[in-house]
Amino acid sequence: MKIFRSLWFTLQFSLIACCTFILLTGAWMIMVSGAPWIVLPWLLTFTAVLSIPGQFIFWMLLCFMPLNQPVQKKLLIIRIFLFAFVVLCVLSLSLIHVPFLHAFPDYGYNTFFQSVLVFSFLGMSCWLALRIMERKYIRFFQEVQGIPTEESTTSELLHSITHKINSTMETSPIQPPASAQGSILIKGLTTGGLILLLLIPTLFITHLIEEREKRHQEVVQEVSARWANPQTIASPYIIVPYTETFLNHEGKPVQHTQPLVLFSKHLTVQGEVFPETRARSIYTILLYRSHLQLSGTFKPQWPSDIKKEQLQLDQARICFGIGDYKGVEKEIRIRFGQQSIELSPGVPAEVFKQSGLSAPVPLTIEQLEEGINFDMDVSLKGSGKLHFLPISSNSSFQLKSNWHSPSFDGNNLPNQRKVDATGFTASWNFNQANLPFAAVSKSDQIQTEGTAFGVSLVQPADHYDKALRSVKYAILIIGLTFAVFFIMELVSKKPFHPVQYVLVGMALVIFYSLLLSVSEYIIFDYAYLISAIATISMVVLYAKSHFGNWKAAFVFSATLSILYGFIFVLLRLEDTALLVGSIGLFIVLACIMYVSRKINWYGRG
Length: 605
Description:
Elements: H1 2-32, H2 39-63, H3 71-95, H4 110-144, H5 154-168, H6 180-197, H7 199-227, E1 231-247, E2 253-263, E3 266-280, E4 283-298, E5 317-321, E6 333-336, E7 339-342, E8 344-345, E9 356-360, H8 365-370, E10 372-383, E11 385-389, E12 394-401, E13 406-410, E14 416-420, E15 423-430, E16 440-442, E17 453-457, H9 463-471, H10 474-492, H11 498-519, H12 524-547, H13 550-572, H14 577-595
Parallel strand pairs: 1-11, 3-12
Antiparallel strand pairs: 1-2, 1-5, 2-16, 3-4, 4-10, 5-9, 6-7, 6-10, 8-9, 11-17, 12-15, 13-17, 14-15
């Protein structure tokens, strides 16, 4: 009879735990990760197979549990077994290939977060099943020990069981009651499980921050597309059709015409960038206008394999490359020798795989050998970045702006630069040895991919990046706060219920939601201060109401203030964040060890 009842109780427990696990995991994969519905059969099959050895061990545990053991100790053994089973499952899943785990989103440390999620879902499922089946297990153990059952609450039932055991064992060595050590251990494990469980909402917050950042990028792209996209400038160059004669496989001469590109021998670019901001809903988009002055000389050195008589100089065109036509604010004219030529959209050949402007300019060999000077003024608007292509034999670029947060990027950094509160200045210099192609080249020999350089105007202290970094420290905030609560309840002997831990943990998690939403309207530093004050006030008042004195409230106020202040300092640092963070954690751990050194963990005396 005992064997069959144990089997029936095991099947009930397994059904409740498995259904809960499937519901939690399936909802997460489909609603959050966007996995297809076909993943549910995989999950169902995997859960059923995984539960078989657990069911068998659990059934054997119920069947062969010693009769003279107190009911509370039997329940403790069951809890320890379930915890060990959950940990073993998570460790196994991290080592083997499980198809449905690929439905979880990638959060950087993918294996870690998958393990946390599986541990949380599986632990929650087992805990819920045990809570539902607890009364049945108590009655079952009571009947096995021969203790009469009563229709009473669980607390009354446990009291009658303890009383019966004590009365029937007066002549034998007295069994000690459930030790304080065991209760502290259970409370510690429960608190640790809650810390891991509360990491799940932080994943939702992380997903929310990424979603808001993506929305911000979409708004920036939308406004930039209507204003003008990032600009990449290719200084003036000349395209001349060049005809070559080849012998085909039959030995007959065949002519082939291709563009020949002439680059300037000297080039000087001086520019100024004027940043502008545009508001769209709650977002601020950084744009710019620029004014460029270009001057130089065309005086090519002809390679030995180029025959001048095969150049069709009467069809030559002067070209100027830009990134986006919408950025042209007024007509672009070039003073080429003694002529003033207006450039129109379109180039005869996409030498640089970008759009551009061009105009016909008949030439002679004598003019080119003598040298032709040019200069032009260009007014362009754009967004994000202003880049240039280094396509002149000897060139000099100089840029200045009143924007104080530039990012010099591309293939080359400035030879000289100065950045201060009033803006920046930067200069680049190139010569023929820096270029991967000759000053006179055929169009198929020119490779400019990855050679662009310039400046990007960035908005400093992006609040989305800082909010995302702050969420990564959530486990530190939650863990240390729970540790303080745990120590305080041991010292004051006023137990803190797991539900209260969850409420405090949710308050700590909501801090990040407040930080994200408020930082979209005001400066991040002020948003952090407001969110921290609101969260600390709520937790401190809640602690005061539980422990009943302002001394405990002061401890929590000081602890949380130090923690949030420490995280804020880490967010402000970049290169030394790891060093400062490691030292800070070491100091925090030393303080906790010092405070907890006199706690009676075993509850003796």
